[in-house]
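Revision sheet: structure tokens.
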Amino acid sequence: MGDIKMELYPDKAPKSVANFSNYVKAKHYDGLVFHRVIKGFMIQAGGFNEYMSPREPSGRPVRNEAYNGLKNVRGSVAMARTNDPDSAMAQFFINSVDNHFLDRSGQNAGYTVFGKVTEGMDVVDKISAVPTGQVGPYGDVPRKPIHIVSARIIGDE
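Predicted:
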């Protein structure tokens, strides 16, 4: 649907940025889809192909870095995880709106923000508006697959 460029913050989330960069360099994201899209919330990718078959991550879980002062605001990029705060691996999401409830606070471990979209929020908005449905046990799946053609680190080409 278009290009999305991100700026990463290794000074604020060094483990998460190194983890994400390693997956980019290994071409883990190439050919995967945005598998979870919730209008007015976020778009998520990094774990499934268009048939909702998982692509298993090769790394180890990353320790939560949500204490870094970065917020889950529109355009921020964060690590997806399970209920275990230290379980983030390859999946990530882009916030399409401000989602302050995902920030670390009190007993809430939060979700690690490690970057932001610098170009392509119009693409994020287009993705977040697509029709979604149920595919097997998965909800909020775009009815037409939205592929990540390739993910690259600029300067590493």
